[in-house]
TrEMBL record:
The name this protein goes by in its record: Sulfide:quinone reductase
The protein's required cofactors: FAD
InterPro entries reported for this sequence: FAD/NAD-bd_sf, FAD/NAD-binding_dom, Sulphide_quinone_reductase, TAT_signal
Example GO molecular function: quinone binding
Length: 491
């Protein structure tokens, strides 16, 4: 744990608390916390407790981790804590692969700068772990081998797939030239495709910076008195952080109000699904927030085209109509309908379709849908017992968030060590996911849930209520918890 970094964040948080006439201890009481923790600056003590629980094993085997993002590097770090003589290789070409992706929303809303979320892979490489700065592209799980884009053949005894996902902009007509992008790496092609006329996306770091630039441009337009349409999308695929498409909408709304330009702006959300959130309690809360802020929304709209010349977003809109009476079923038939709908925009935030990397999808390691098929509890591959997957690429329900990875990587390490020792994997991931849903500059609704599709709050507070407390956690605590806690293999 980097104590200086933690102290710096806590100092900033204390100033914010002081401005509201509150101490850190008062804040802790509000959250229902009774012992030392990050709110009290007790991170080092927490790590000391974690150290006591760690048991070393002399299990042997060559472990290859495909992907050096948050999931991959955290797993590597935790394995080094548990193995006496670890033999671990990470395959990751991107220098900034561990950059703090949850912060991209804050960059897009002008809260943070891009430099605030940029972290170098090699600064978080655990001692003794080797890194191959190449990309895995060919896989032969029958022979326990893979080949990189530079022709390096890598053998393994155990493989952990943590490659993340790709942003499939090429599926959207008008943005095909953007191709398929990753959150990290060179995305100049994507930025060029988006242009400078109101189209943006927070799903890359530089894209988040561009979002803030475009947002300011069209807030100024609204402030000048011109009616301005702000359009926000959500695609028909699984995505990183299902709350992000709404977070950037809330932040746009906050910035418009701050500029005194809200009355000249129309904010409309076009989700592909039929609800605001998969958990009913959070859906109801968000719907109430939308009504309060006078947002508009249209369910079952999937973005399929962007007409840059006319500044129109084209959606595939779906609905159902009652058909003729069915005498056998003794009910009316339901006829699915759909049509193209063109929506004018000034500012368009695009959430691209998201898919597994083509290299995995087209290999024996992938499933029909592209993702790596694993047992959702043990994270072990359903066909290859020496292969595990974690994070965005794993085919598990509701698991594409950093909060999910924080629960998954400990389960994976325990189960991999069990397999290395000739035992069955018994640790289980319960599907925990957390979405700190930013609803304004200064408030967050902390949506926690699991596969029960019910709220599973970690604190004794109503989880559907927006709180300044969770804003403090989002701004000051979650990043250091991730960068110096999880990436140390302990948090």
């Amino acid at each position: 744990m980097d104590n200086k970094y933690i102290e710096k964040m806590l100092s900033k948080m204390d100033k914010d608390l002081s401005a509201h006439g509150m101490s850190r201890r008062d804040a802790m009481k509000m959250a229902g916390l009774s012992g030392a923790g990050l709110f009290m600056g007790g991170a080092t003590g927490a790590h000391a407790e974690e150290e006591k629980k760690i048991e070393k094993t002399d299990a042997k085997g060559k472990i290859v981790i495909l992907g050096g993002g948050l999931s991959g590097m955290s797993t590597a770090a935790r394995l080094t804590l548990h193995l006496d003589n670890p033999d671990i290789t990470v395959i990751e070409p991107q220098e900034l692969s561990v950059s703090y992706q949850p912060g991209q929303t804050l960059v897009g809303g002008g809260i943070w700068d891009e430099d605030d979320i940029a972290f170098k892979r090699d600064d978080f490489l655990p001692d003794g772990v080797k890194v191959i700065k190449e990309k895995g592209i060919l896989f032969n799980p029958q022979k326990n081998q893979l080949t990189t884009d530079k022709g390096t053949v890598v053998s393994y005894d155990y493989l952990i797939i943590a490659m993340g996902l790709q942003l499939d902009f090429e599926r959207i007509r008008g943005l095909e030239e953007a191709g398929r992008a990753y959150s990290a790496g060179d995305n100049e092609r994507l930025l060029k495709a988006l242009g400078d006329d109101g189209i943006c996306s927070i799903y890359t770091a530089k894209g988040a910076t561009k979002t803030w630039e475009q947002m300011q441009k069209y807030i100024a337009q609204a402030k000048s008195g011109k009616k301005t349409n702000f359009v926000f999308t959500h695609p028909n695929t699984p995505i990183k952080c299902g709350g992000a498409p709404k977070k950037i909408m809330y932040l746009t709304n906050a910035r418009l109000k701050e500029a005194g330009a809200r009355e000249n702006a129309e904010l409309t959300f076009y989700p592909n699904g039929g609800a605001m959130f998969g958990v009913p309690e959070y859906h109801d809360a968000i719907l109430g927030q939308f009504k309060r802020e006078k947002f508009k929304w249209h369910y079952r709209h999937n973005l399929i085209e962007v007409d840059k010349e006319k500044k129109e977003a084209v959606f595939d809109a779906k609905w159902q109509e009652k058909g003729p009476w069915d005498p056998v079923l003794k009910d009316f038939e339901v006829i699915p309908k759909h049509e193209k709908r063109r929506v004018p925009y000034d500012f368009l935030h695009v959430v691209p379709p998201q898919i597994a990397p083509r290299e995995i999808a087209e290999s024996d390691l992938g499933s029909a849908k592209g993702w790596v098929p694993v047992n959702k509890e043990t994270l072990q591959h359903i066909r290859y017992e020496n292969v595990f997957a974690i994070g965005d690429i794993a085919q598990v329900p509701m698991g594409k968030t950093g909060g999910s990875a924080r629960k998954q990587y400990k389960v994976l390490v325990d189960n991999l060590i069990s397999v290395m020792n000739g035992k069955k994997p018994e640790a289980k991931y319960a599907g925990y996911t957390v979405c700190p849903l930013i609803t304004d500059i200064g408030t967050v609704m902390l949506a926690e849930f699991d596969w029960t599709v019910k709220p599973t709050p970690s604190f004794p507070l109503d989880p559907t209520v927006e709180r300044w407390m969770w804003w403090l956690m989002k701004i000051y605590l979650l990043k250091p918890m991730t960068m110096y806690g999880m990436l140390s293999g302990r948090a």
